[in-house]
């Protein structure tokens, strides 16, 4: 069994709940810049890459940093585009700020519930289902979250999802 404590993974094919969504990066918000790649005093010439609030939110969610996630959300970071499967507190916070637990990745058709089931984070699976994620949703390969849990050997997640109504 994998829980949220200390074992974090990130779904890198999603931009900043997978929660969430398929939103494109928003260039209008910036939070900080990365250090220059050389010693030039001109930020652009020096290789600064401006990071959006959503980039920072993705980074904070990936490390399970709930305090930073909340600070960034309060600063205006867009919640949809981010999900941290391994941290139920981060997932809960994103949901409180309006993340959509049913959003799908455009390329795979996976929802946050698919990702949490595949990676074995039972606490996050329970939280997403409690917040109206569809356990019967199928990804582009026709897999339901329970199928992914079974394929990856996450029996606790599989058993939980099978206990829900309408799960085959």
UniProtKB/TrEMBL annotation:
PROSITE patterns membership: ANK_REP_REGION (PS50297), ANK_REPEAT (PS50088), PROKAR_LIPOPROTEIN (PS51257)
Ranges of compositional bias, category Polar residues: 1-13
GO biological process, one term: regulation of G1/S transition of mitotic cell cycle
Region annotated Disordered, chain positions: 1-44, 131-168
SMART domains reported for this sequence: ANK (SM00248)
Keywords: ANK repeat, Repeat
InterPro entries associated with the record: Ank_Repeat/CDKN_Inhibitor, Ankyrin_rpt, Ankyrin_rpt-contain_sf
The organism's place on the tree of life at top rank: Eukaryota
Gene Ontology CC entries for this record: cytoplasm; nucleus
Gene3D superfamilies in the cross-refs: Ankyrin repeat-containing domain
PANTHER family from the UniProt entry: ANK_REP_REGION DOMAIN-CONTAINING PROTEIN, CYCLIN-DEPENDENT KINASE 4 INHIBITOR B
Protein name: Uncharacterized protein
């Amino acid at each position: 069994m994998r829980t949220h404590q200390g074992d974090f993974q990130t779904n890198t094919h999603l931009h900043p709940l997978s929660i969430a969504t398929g939103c494109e990066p928003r260039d209008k918000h910036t939070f900080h810049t990365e250090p220059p790649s050389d010693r030039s005093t001109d930020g652009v010439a020096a290789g600064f890459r401006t990071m959006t609030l959503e980039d920072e939110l993705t980074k904070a969610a990936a490390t399970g940093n709930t305090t930073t996630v909340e600070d960034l959300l309060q600063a205006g970071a867009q919640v949809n585009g981010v999900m941290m499967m391994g941290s139920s507190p981060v997932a809960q916070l994103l949901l409180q700020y309006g993340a959509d637990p049913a959003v799908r990745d455009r390329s795979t058709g996976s929802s946050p519930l698919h990702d949490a089931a595949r990676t074995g984070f039972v606490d996050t699976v329970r939280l997403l289902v409690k917040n109206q994620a569809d356990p019967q949703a199928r990804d582009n390969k026709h897999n339901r979250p329970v199928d992914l849990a079974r394929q990856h050997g996450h029996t606790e997640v599989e058993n939980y999802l099978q206990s829900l109504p309408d799960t085959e």
